[in-house]
Design brief:
Blueprint: E1 3-7, H1 11-23, E2 27-31, H2 37-43, E3 48-52, H3 60-67, E4 75-79, H4 84-92, E5 97-100, H5 105-124, E6 128-132, E7 135-139, E8 143-146, E9 149-150, H6 155-166, E10 172-173, H7 174-182, H8 191-206, E11 213-216, E12 220-223
Parallel strand pairs: 1-2, 1-3, 3-4, 4-5
Antiparallel strand pairs: 6-7, 7-8, 8-9, 10-12, 11-12
Helix pairs in contact: 6-7, 6-8
């Protein structure tokens, strides 16, 4: 049974999300602020975090940054603000998805299920190694390394990276990558893929990797190998 944390200072939002999650047989723990959430994720073995951006005290973006220092738990942001800077910053800090309030609880359930579906598939898959230049991916374990050192990726960073590695030398549009990475027909800003690629490139550069993601101008992205 999956354990989900919901962090939101609005009680009606917390209760609404809890109601829908429990209908899907998830275990739910509620928090009205960001205090102690990071440590409780480890202690209570949470599997996913639904996190409000705007909260008194520790805001969601600050909490996300703190969590990413110790955990790669999937994070879905929900926010009353639909400003591009919040969405981009949230994704850059390592969030896996972003929903603007008011949102459909059913849509949130779909996004949660798709994240778990991909993670569970990785666990069930046989161990398979993919090697392109100096980067190795151990599928099933969702593990990436360069020169024997782990390259830590968030859920969506890994999903995009593995997909491009498996289809190396083939260019994909941003719309195609949104559908492949998010697992549904995403209606929104395709710059989410640009943000994801930017983060991946930065991590590959920091690891001094030979492999990179190539921009196909006016079209999308590919990995050459």
């Amino acid at each position: 049974m999956k354990h989900i944390f919901v962090v939101d200072d609005e009680r009606n939002i917390r209760d609404l999300i809890k109601k829908y999650l429990e209908k899907e047989n998830y275990t739910v723990t509620l928090f009205e602020n960001g205090q102690n959430v990071a440590s409780e994720i480890i202690r209570l073995k949470a599997d996913l975090l639904v996190l409000d951006v705007m909260m008194p005290g520790i805001d969601g973006l600050t909490l996300c940054k703190e969590i990413r220092k110790r955990s790669e738990i999937p994070i879905i942001f929900v926010s009353a603000r639909d400003e591009e800077i919040d969405r981009i910053l949230g994704l850059e800090l390592g969030a896996d998805d972003y929903l603007s309030k008011p949102f459909s609880p059913r849509e949130l359930m779909v996004r949660i299920k798709n994240i778990f579906k991909r993670l569970d598939k990785g666990v069930m898959d046989k161990v398979e190694e993919l090697m392109v230049k100096d980067i190795k991916i151990i599928c099933g374990r969702r593990y990436v390394e360069k020169g024997g050192l782990e390259l830590k990726l968030t859920t969506k960073e890994y999903d995009l990276f593995e997909f491009l590695i498996r289809h190396k030398n083939i260019p994909f549009t941003r719309e195609q990558l949104l559908e492949k990475v998010w697992g549904y027909d995403y209606i929104g800003d395709t710059r989410m893929i640009d943000d994801l690629v930017k983060r991946l490139r930065k991590k590959l550069e920091e690891a001094d990797a030979q492999l990179g993601i190539t921009t196909v101008w006016g079209y999308g992205y590919r990995i050459e190998g």
